[in-house]
Amino acid sequence: MTQIYIEEKTYEKDNFTENPLAKGEYERCVFKNCDLSNTDLSDIKFIECEFLTCNLSLAKLSKTTFREVQFKECKMLGLLFYTCNEFGLTVSFHSCNLNHSSFYQRKLKKTAFINSRMNDIDFTDCDLTGALFDRCDLMNAKFENTIIEKADFRTSYNFSINPVVNRIRKAKFSLPNITGLLDSFDIEIDD
Predict the structure, then answer these.
(1) Which of 32, 52, 71, 134 is a plausible cystine mate for 12, CB 3.0–4.6 Å?
(2) What is the pTM of this model?
(3) Is the pLDDT of residue 185 over 80?
(4) Is the pLDDT of residue 183 over 90?
């Protein structure tokens, strides 16, 4: 199958569930209000692309490349980022719904997660060194054997991070959300 190369193209309101996105490399492309839910994005390369108000829920990401890719106001339920090409994986998320997704064993140093819903997300064995979690809902997020050194959780909430099984040196927390570090100890804290 011939691989295509597309550069600086804007896709608006395209329904890729009906007409699948062609396999190939997309560089500096913008996807606005597109439906990519349940599609197969395997082996596709996205370089310096933007996804704006798109639905990517349950898309297949086997060997998909995301390099310098921004997701804004996207619905991204149940995505398995651990199947992506990990070489050069650089992404940012702003006002996205990432519930039930998994970043198992991914290196996400300095990744920005801003104002996003991240319930039941899996960060097991991830490297989140220097990551920013700004105003994120991390209800039932799984942090196990995770490196969160120098990560910033000061404005995020509903997380539970066990400091015994994660590396948290120099991570930043605020006084109101510090209880998320003590949940695993089954202690009672009064106001």
Answers:
(1) 32
(2) 0.92
(3) no
(4) no
